[in-house]
């Protein structure tokens, strides 16, 4: 039994993230997607909303489950009994950043090794920042977010966006 842990901010989850999750599910017996907190970021969606959007995005995928955790990835790694951390990279900047995180995680938990999967070319320009910009402008996020996630995110921006200046 092999278990992969895919951590991320997922603010919101994109079709690029889903592609990486699917490919990890083809490589490992079980995939745990972990919605976590990156201290460097302020989020448009709170943790429960981000987790709910991930659940919507992976609802049809067998052997994939979702957790939300506000602690350290190296601790969650042991708690869920993971064998490997998987992250997707689109370009050299992503790769350099992920290698730093992988190194930090490995230093703090020698069992926690990271495998970086190269994103397919189709997803090179797909990112959560662009999705949030379009949502803020009330524009379509087709092709960026899975349809159920797009509907959830648009609803949240419509109902709260103007009031909270999201
Ligand atoms: O999608 P992101 O923002 O690249 O994901 C980064 C994330 C959330 C995986 C990373 O910040 C993380 O592992 N957060 C959990 C807290 C932690 O372990 N921090 C130290 C890792 S450098």
Give structural notes:
Helix 2 (47-58) runs antiparallel to helix 6. The chain has helices at residues 15-27, 47-58, 73-79, 92-108, 128-136, 147-164, and strands at 3-8, 30-35, 64-68, 84-89, 114-118. With 166 residues, it is an alpha/beta fold. Helices cover 46% and strands 17% of the residues. It has a single domain (3-124), classed as HUPs (Rossmann fold). A five-stranded parallel beta sheet has the order 3-2-1-4-5, sandwiched between helices. It is globular and about 45 Å long. The structure holds 4'-phosphopantetheine. The site of 4'-phosphopantetheine (PNS) has 11 residues, from strand 1 and helix 4.
Name the CATH class. Answer: Alpha Beta
Mean pLDDT: 96
In what range is the share of β-strand residues?
Answer: 15-25%
CA radius of gyration:
16 Å
Share of helical residues: 40-55%
What is the number of helices?
6
List the helices and strands and how they pair.
Layout: E1 3-8, H1 15-27, E2 30-35, H2 47-58, E3 64-68, H3 73-79, E4 84-89, H4 92-108, E5 114-118, H5 128-136, H6 147-164
Bound molecules: 4'-phosphopantetheine.
4'-phosphopantetheine binds at residues 7-9, 36-38, 41, 72-73, 101, 104.
Main attributes of the structure:
binds 4'-phosphopantetheine; five-stranded parallel beta sheet; 17% strand; alpha/beta; 5 strands; Rossmann fold; 166 residues
In short:
With 166 residues, the protein is an alpha/beta fold. The chain has helices at 15-27, 47-58, 73-79, 92-108, 128-136, 147-164, and strands at 3-8, 30-35, 64-68, 84-89, 114-118. The protein has a single domain, classed as HUPs (Rossmann fold).
């Amino acid at each position: 039994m092999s278990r992969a842990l895919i951590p991320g901010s997922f603010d919101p989850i994109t079709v690029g993230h889903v592609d990486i999750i699917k490919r990890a599910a083809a490589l490992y017996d079980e995939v745990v997607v972990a919605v976590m907190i990156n201290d460097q970021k302020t989020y448009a969606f709170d943790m429960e909303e981000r987790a709910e959007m991930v659940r919507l995005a992976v609802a049809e995928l067998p052997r994939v489950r979702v957790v939300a955790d506000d602690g350290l990835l190296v601790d969650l790694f042991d708690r869920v009994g993971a064998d490997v951390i998987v992250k997707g990279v689109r370009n050299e900047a992503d790769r350099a950043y992920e290698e730093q995180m992988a190194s930090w995680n490995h230093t703090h938990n020698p069992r926690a090794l990271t495998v970086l999967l190269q994103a397919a070319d189709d997803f090179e320009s797909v990112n959560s920042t662009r999705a949030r910009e379009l949502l803020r402008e009330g524009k379509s996020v087709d092709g960026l977010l899975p349809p159920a996630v797009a509907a959830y995110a648009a609803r949240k921006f419509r109902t709260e966006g103007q009031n909270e200046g999201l």
